[in-house]
Design goal:
This protein has an eight-stranded mixed sheet with strand order 5-6-7-8-9-4-10-11. 29% of the residues are buried. By secondary structure, it is an alpha+beta fold. The chain has one domain: 3-Layer(aba) Sandwich (Aminopeptidase). The termini are close together.
Length: 211
């Protein structure tokens, strides 16, 4: 059995700036801070990822796909997306109604001045804008960094589909890892992520599978 240090005892590191590559920082369990593309952090939660060599759709993954067939998306380079005041206001309203802590200034930063380079724009069956998934694609890894969605879907399957689609696309690109952000088995933060085959999280300075 894996002996784990309690997650609330983990060393917290913020504003970490180093000369390592993005790939090395992710490999070391660090995540990019939302307010600056220069800094990484580690908090009481763990970074998580899917090892795509081990990924294939599970029955739960297929259930999510079936339940969300009414939604469609476009994956576009972030440089081709027009982030304007209307979009910013819509996302800010979603964030407020969801009860999240995510300042409007941070929303603008992650869309306009960060490392992220691809955006998934999701619409519902009525062709109404309903979600965004923002992330980073590199030569052999990816990171789904932020999702924003209409609060009416908060307790439905769409939020999980946003991440699942990112993982599926990363697998089809033959990438090695897809990083999923924070995970905490004690508080159940990001707990749905454990349902992805090949799921790992970073603890005790190493990547370990979730058992």
């Amino acid at each position: 059995m894996l002996l784990e240090v309690p997650l609330d005892k983990k060393q917290k590191m913020y504003n970490q700036k180093n000369n390592l590559s993005l790939k090395q920082n992710y490999q070391n369990g660090l995540l990019p801070q939302r307010n600056s593309k220069e800094y990484f952090y580690q908090d009481e939660n763990s970074s998580s990822r899917v090892c795509l060599d081990s990924f294939s759709l599970s029955s739960e993954n297929r259930r999510i796909l079936n339940k969300t067939q009414g939604f469609s998306f476009q994956k576009i380079p972030l440089t081709e997306f027009e982030f304007n005041n209307k979009i910013q206001k819509k996302i800010s309203t979603w964030v407020k109604d969801l009860g999240w802590t995510f300042p409007t200034s941070s929303i603008k930063t992650v869309f306009t001045n960060h490392i992220f380079n691809y955006l998934y724009v999701w619409t519902d069956k009525n062709h109404e804008l309903c979600a965004f998934a923002l992330g980073y694609f590199d030569d052999d890894f990816s990171h789904i960094a932020y999702v924003f969605y209409n609060p009416i879907y908060a307790h439905q399957d769409l939020p999980i589909r946003l991440t699942l689609q990112f993982v599926i696309d990363s697998s089809q690109l033959n990438l090695k890892y897809c990083y999923l952000g924070r995970f905490n088995p004690n508080t159940k933060l990001g707990y749905y992520k454990r349902n992805f085959p090949g799921f790992e999280y970073f603890i005790n300075d190493q990547w370990v599978p979730y058992n």
